[in-house]
Write a structure and sequence with these properties.
Layout: H1 22-51, H2 53-79, H3 87-96, E1 106-111, E2 114-119, H4 123-131, H5 136-155, E3 159-165, E4 177-183
């Protein structure tokens, strides 16, 4: 059977995703990633509108710590056989994360125990800046640190996550954020 570039033809009762071309599957992954981010944004806004931003941040942190990151590491990294406990392994996980497919990220791996992660343009930050309520402080500084910190701890309790650059920005031309990942050996 020929690979499909879309599903515009007749209904196929035995259809499954392996019928699509590689490019179509990559486009579908990007669409799923965009969808995941929109669902995350809308549930957050719904909680915020009903109970306030503090409650929404609290819920976001609980989800990240108890479900989102542990599930992602187990399911996706397990499927791709990503194993290890250094910063380089964590960067591999970030490269394949469904969250990482929605926007551009740059990883600069200096060695297996040190890397920086740069997000040049962040759709979430752009929306927060447009809103103009200053929520980028709680989203980027609190939830971002919790998200990356939780993921780091699942790889190695000695991985430290430090923000090198976070919002607010002086100009829309500035990089959205830069995070540093290091391993500090326990003493």
């Amino acid at each position: 059977m020929a690979e499909l570039v879309d599903y515009s033809g007749e209904f196929e009762p035995e259809f499954n995703l392996n019928r699509f071309s590689k490019q179509t599957l990559l486009n579908l992954i990007k669409a799923y990633s965009d969808y995941l981010i929109k669902v995350d944004a809308y549930w957050y806004l719904t909680v915020m509108d009903k109970w306030g931003n503090d409650a929404a941040v609290d819920c976001d942190i609980k989800i990240l710590k108890n479900l989102s990151k542990p599930y992602e590491i187990k399911a996706i990294d397990g499927m791709l056989n990503i194993k290890g406990n250094d910063v380089a392994t964590m960067m591999k996980a970030i490269q394949v994360s469904p969250w990482g497919q929605a926007w551009e990220r740059w990883i600069d791996l200096k060695n297996k125990d040190y890397a920086t992660l740069t997000t040049p343009v962040c759709p979430t930050l752009l929306a927060l800046e447009k809103e103009g309520r200053g929520r980028e402080l709680s989203i980027c500084q609190v939830c971002g640190k919790t998200n990356l910190g939780t993921q780091a701890q699942l790889f190695n309790r000695n991985i430290k996550v430090n923000p090198l650059k976070l919002p607010p920005r002086k100009s829309k031309d500035e990089i959205a954020c830069i995070w540093e990942f290091t391993i500090e050996e326990s003493r």
